[in-house]
Amino acid sequence: MKPDTLLPANKCTTGCPILDQCLAGGIPCNSVTEIVAESGSGKTQLCLQLSLCAQLPTSLGGLSSSCLYLHTEFPFPFRRLRQLSVSFRSLYGQVFVDSSDPCDNVFVHSLPSVDELLDILPKLESFLVKSKSQLPVGLIVIDSIAALFRSEFENTPGDLKKRSSLFFKISGMLKMLARKFNLAVAVTNQVVDFVGSDNGVNGVRIGNLGCLYSSGRRVCPALGLAWANCVNSRLFLSREDNGVIEGDVGEGGFVCRETKRRLHVVFAPHLPPSSCEFVIRSDGVSGVDR
Amino acid sequence: MDISTLPLSATVRGKLISAGYTSISSLASISSSDLARDLNLLDSEAREILKVAFPVNGMDKVEGSHSIVSGAKNAWDMLHEDEFLTRITTSSADLDNILRGGISCKEVTEIGGVPGIGKTQLGIQLAVNVQIPSHCGGLGGKAVYIDTEGSFMVERALQIAEACVEDMSEYSEFVHKGFQAGQETMQSKDILRNIYYFRACTYTEQIALINHLGSFISEHKDVKIVIIDSVTFHFRQDFDDLALRTRVLGGMALKLMKLAKEFCLAVVLMNQVTTKVVEGSFQLSLALGDSWSHACTNRVILYWNGNERYAYIDKAPSLKPATAAYSVTRRGIRNSESSCKRNKMM
């Protein structure tokens, strides 16, 4: 029995200095980071960007490793990944001097059910050991964990108990892999509308933010308290739509919606509560300095 | 002196001589675990040999025999001891107040709360604070940190350690005017070096670690706090047999209590919260069930009240139930800001 030497965690950059500053360098290795948001807030966008940024050398804040992307929501946005990879390549031309395509280092696997996930987790270890590409796997993304659990389980005490036991099992395995291979793990989660009084179980305050608002509604992360215990850090992406009318509405006009997006740190062992505005453009997710 | 003068069995003597330990002085500087390895014996047997070889050496041996001879301590002595019992500050004066000075040694303290309330922060803070040297009013000990969730972040520990070093130098300047800095000031890297970090990835690993903790601490006598963050995580999966879980947890709690007594150290266990159905309605309670709630001597619950973090003493034999606000700042656990304002107003 020997104590471990303490080394600062590697971080996987988000590809944007402003977001990185908010996250003190990015998504930490040897840790499970959850990204919570309602649909259309940019969870998948951020994950796709992370999967490319993991390939950057450590001098640029990456992990110089490949990414395993497990997706549960169909279809996988290949076209968007392609689009991001093109701009990513031109941005970091000096890294990708040879004709290697950043997409080659993103392994995609679909997970249609919980059983599939439970099946694949023990097999991941052998996959990680003999990774086919030159780069070892350094980042695992599960997008999204909520989609699996929200459909398959009933809202009965028995099912809920089984469900939370599965959460701990999955998270235990992910953390073990993260520890063994020094992986960064990013998991996305959905939100549910907040119903009822503040005193109910749903009103249990978790983390630094008193309450989470997105699209003007009060929301809370899906999968409940048990799952909240399973992750190391929780990030929340919120969006506010401000309808801005441009052009002539009468004929051939269009409504352009201006969406304000923010990234909040709900809780994290190494981060103070903070938030930062970001935008999603064709070349990816980037923070806005205000 | 020759080894043959010792009252040892022939086989042990033979093993000692064949391993090269021919004189008593050759045993003088060896630890029991090294000896056990060299002689291929159990650690306890090796300790016996050393006890025979050096009957008067070592404080603990004297203490041990004393307690066997007298059989019991009287309550007066214990009260006297209690006055000298050191406590580990939490860095929040309000929190220390309700705990009568901090987390006490020789006891098992459980700290529970929702995710993000600051359990890990408090754990890291305690691992740093235990090292505050005695001239600054601390214990000058070391910490064992058993991480089951992977939430211990070195960069955060460094941040808290740096703040602690700053506070200490301020304190010593204040107390000893013209105190010569340099010889005894601690560096933040020393603080990190004195945190023994273990990562347990399964419950088997966690139990094995706790079983071996005794021998680890007997080699590192200056460990004054053991923090397990969290004790719960691995026990919330894969336990269909709840009776077995209760037994395993009970055994673990007993071992930790024994450690706390034996080495006069503080044991701090972090626990999660779960929902519990009471008469049809849901309530929050600490995880691991009712039988576990007997396992810890003290129980502190952390919770949100509005925008403030509060600590509540749920169970403690020698403390009255009380609440105190605290906050988690960049520098670590501190008094809550609003209570600072209140104090200034008065």
From TrEMBL, chain A:
PANTHER family named among the record's database cross-references: DNA REPAIR PROTEIN XRCC3
Cited Gene3D superfamilies: P-loop containing nucleotide triphosphate hydrolases
Organism: Erythroxylum novogranatense
PROSITE patterns according to UniProt: RECA_2
One of the GO BP terms on file: resolution of mitotic recombination intermediates
Cellular component aspect of the GO annotation: Rad51C-XRCC3 complex; replication fork
Chief location category: nucleus
Pfam families recorded: Rad51
Protein keywords: ATP-binding, DNA damage, DNA repair, Nucleotide-binding, Nucleus
SUPFAM superfamilies, per the entry: P-loop containing nucleoside triphosphate hydrolases
Lineage: Eukaryota, Viridiplantae, Streptophyta, Embryophyta, Tracheophyta
Subcellular location: Nucleus
Top-level lineage group: Eukaryota
Sequence ranges assigned to domain RecA family profile in this UniProt record: 8-191
Gene Ontology molecular function, alphabetical: ATP binding; ATP-dependent DNA damage sensor activity; four-way junction DNA binding
This protein's name: RecA family profile 1 domain-containing protein
From TrEMBL, chain B:
CDD domains assigned to the protein according to its UniProt record, in alphabetical order: Rad51C
UniProt xrefs under Gene3D superfamilies: P-loop containing nucleotide triphosphate hydrolases
One GO MF term attached to the UniProt entry: four-way junction DNA binding
GO CC, alphabetical: Rad51B-Rad51C-Rad51D-XRCC2 complex; Rad51C-XRCC3 complex; replication fork
Keyword ATP-binding: yes
GO biological process, one term: reciprocal meiotic recombination
InterPro entries: DNA_recomb/repair_RecA-like, HR_Repair_Mediator, P-loop_NTPase, Rad51_C, RecA_ATP-bd
Keyword Cell inner membrane: no
Main location: nucleus
Domain of life: Eukaryota
Pfam families linked: Rad51
Residues annotated as domain RecA family profile: 84-273
Protein location: Nucleus
Coiled-coil regions listed in the entry: none
Keywords on record: ATP-binding, DNA damage, DNA recombination, DNA repair, DNA-binding, Nucleotide-binding, Nucleus
Family: Belongs to the RecA family. RAD51 subfamily.
Function: Involved in the homologous recombination repair (HRR) pathway of double-stranded DNA breaks arising during DNA replication or induced by DNA-damaging agents.
Protein name listed in UniProt: DNA repair protein RAD51 homolog 3
Taxonomic source organism: Erythroxylum novogranatense
Lineage: Eukaryota, Viridiplantae, Streptophyta, Embryophyta, Tracheophyta
